Amino acid sequence: MAQKINDIQLLQLVEAAIFAAEKPLSRAELQATVLEGFNVSAKRLLQCLKQLQDDYSARGIQLMETASGYRFQTRPELSEPLARLWPERSPRYSRAVLETLALIAYRQPITRGEIEQIRGVSVSSQIMRTLTERGWVKVVGHKEVPGRPGLYATTEAFLDYFGLRHLDQLPPLAEFAALQPAEAELLTTVGMTGELH
Amino acid sequence: MAQKINDIQLLQLVEAAIFAAEKPLSRAELQATVLEGFNVSAKRLLQCLKQLQDDYSARGIQLMETASGYRFQTRPELSEPLARLWPERSPRYSRAVLETLALIAYRQPITRGEIEQIRGVSVSSQIMRTLTERGWVKVVGHKEVPGRPGLYATTEAFLDYFGLRHLDQLPPLAEFAALQPAEAELLTTVGMTGELH
Amino acid sequence: MAEQLPPLTIQQPLPLAFVRGEAVLERPEDLYIPPDALEVLLDTFEGPLDFLLYLIRKHKFDLVDLPVNEITLQYMEYIELMQELNFELAAEYLVMAAMLAEIKSRLLLPKITNLEDDEHDPRAELVRRLQEYEIFKQAATDLDVLPRDERDYFTAQASLADNFSPLLILPDVDFTELISALNDIVKRSKALAHHHIQREHLSTRERMSRILDLLQQRQGYLEFAECFDLTEGREGVVVTFLAILELTKEKLVELIQVAPYAQIHVKLALSEA
């Protein structure tokens, strides 16, 4: 004693079921739950789902068929503004990140190896990635030594963030040059020290 | 530097946001999240929501405004077949729970002792716990009498659950005026007793 | 709910009751109530007020002009019956019994005060409580039929598109944090410090980065003159020149001149391999 259901009622019911279910609903699940007792043919259900897909084609959400069934999902183009509904605060930067950034700012262009030499500890790829993804540092070239390590420099975004127009607005660190012994020696040797100021 | 957004994009974004959010979204929340940077006037947003309400008026789901904001929900007429999606879920509440909830809703803020006085029986801690855990009632203060009993009030979640925007959308109480003892006494004194029944 | 209750014992003919001016005569009913039915009865009521209301409605008594004698009699019969059957009665039921008995006895006393004063009607307080309870009992029923979530409607939700990722709020860095990080390095590296203390303009280092960046964009090859921006003035030219010298010295670039007086080119240094 199957109940009758007209096309509009069928559409409403299938639509509501897919929206209300916590997970994608397959056609078999629709038949076994909300459509139980209505005797809706497979063809009719398919038509109904096609109709729903059309109805939502120009809307903010779309009816998608995934491996486990049908579900509504937001348009991919809207992901960026929708992201603001779920802001995630990332943790503060570690000391290592800040020291690396400071060294790149003052000693650019500089390789990761040179940073490690000065800091006296290894610099993880994660640190370099953090700074690169933030858009504060970038690779501006490669040092022509074995392994061709990347040469890091700060970006305009870095200056913008800290409200600087030029790097030389960073406070001078008189002692800083002393940290590169090899270089300091070289400079002394070639007698160009004076001219560098 | 507000970005431009056309009416169709606005509709899609608001629609997607309400569908994707875990809880009802107020206009203020929409403005502060997905619409941030678009400079959409209050009037335009209201029109957009009205448009959405119209778009869905004949569908299996509807756009509703409850106490804490807008959400899409399935049509009440579809509840019976839809309930088959969750065979185990059918929350029923005892009369004791419902009477206690009604007293808190209509007489808030109210102490447990006052509820017991009106109901003529003690109110178990289990009942108060059920209502608190559902997020329907909360302690909003303490009555300054010995023991400083908690004063209970209903929450936005309570209104949301019952699809209400304000407490005054609750069904009116029968002959409520007659029931306020202080008021009734006053009326009696001035000889209005007859009119109270 | 009341309709589903078992028939109640009535031990005496009911008095005539007037409901909205209409006389109603209830006939005596069966005396016997099975004990388990009484238990169900107790569970059905939300306390003595609920029970009293049931009795009042069942016998179509007028709540406002409560016939205390009759209702007390009815009430007592049930209570006694339940006590005889050793049901554990909530204390509230016994308190109510005492209250009814008290009202009844006060009604028997000669009235001293003027009769039209409602406040001195011993029934008034009980009637008020019954009325009040009945209204909230009704409110609870009304609340229960309100359409509600998870029963009459369900929240409609959509999943997020596959390309969705939450907005990452990146940590703020204070300028002083950067400086203090640098100071730490300086302190830590004291041991490495060389006697020759060099102070270099940061603008030179910045310019070095810029030239490298430009070289990358130009496939590693630039005319010497292209490195200079004459609008920067003398100082800019000097900074650029120093930067090129420094880059050459660090073997990051090579300067190439194919013939005397020919154009000088700046070229990214290539490894020997």
Strand portion of chain A, in percent?
Answer: 5-15%
Low-confidence stretches of chain A: 176-197
The pLDDT mean of chain A sits at 85
Quickly name the level 1 CATH class of the largest domain in chain A: Mainly Alpha
What name does the CATH topology of the largest domain in chain A carry? Arc Repressor Mutant, subunit A
Oligomer: heterotrimer
Number of helices of chain C: 8
Which sheet architecture does the biggest sheet of chain C show?
3 strands, antiparallel
**How do the SSEs of chain C run, as a string of H and E?**
EEHHHHHEHHEHEE
- The residue fraction in helices of chain C comes out at 40-55%
Placed side by side, the strands forming the largest sheet of chain C appear as: 4-6-5
- The coarse silhouette of chain C is rod-shaped
Helix segment tally of chain A: 9
CATH architecture of the largest domain in chain A: Orthogonal Bundle
Helical content of chain A (DSSP H or I, runs of 4+): 40-55%
Would you mind describing this structure in some detail?
Chains A, B: It holds the Pfam family SMC_ScpB. Chains A, B: InterPro entries: ScpB_csome_segregation, WH-like_DNA-bd_sf, WH_DNA-bd_sf. Chains A, B: This is Segregation and condensation protein B. The complex is a heterotrimer, with two copies of chain A (197 residues) and one copy of chain C (273 residues). Chain A is an alpha+beta fold and 197 residues long. Chain A has two domains: 75 residues, Arc Repressor Mutant, subunit A, CATH 1.10.10; 95 residues, Winged helix-like DNA-binding domain superfamily/Winged helix DNA-binding domain (Arc Repressor Mutant, subunit A). In chain A, strands 1-2 form a two-stranded antiparallel sheet. Chain A has a two-stranded antiparallel sheet with strand order 4-5. In chain A, a hairpin with a 7-residue loop joins β4 and β5. In chain A, α1 crosses α3 and α5 crosses α7. Chain C is mainly α and 273 residues long. Among the domains of chain C are: 106 residues, no CATH class; 65 residues, Arc Repressor Mutant, subunit A, CATH 1.10.10. In chain C, 46% of the residues lie in helices and 8% in strands. In chain C, β5 and β6 form a beta hairpin. In chain C, α2 packs across α5, α3 runs antiparallel to α4 and α7 crosses α8. The longest helix of chain C has 22 residues. Chains B and C meet through α1, β2, α4, α5 and α9 of B and α2 and α5 of C.
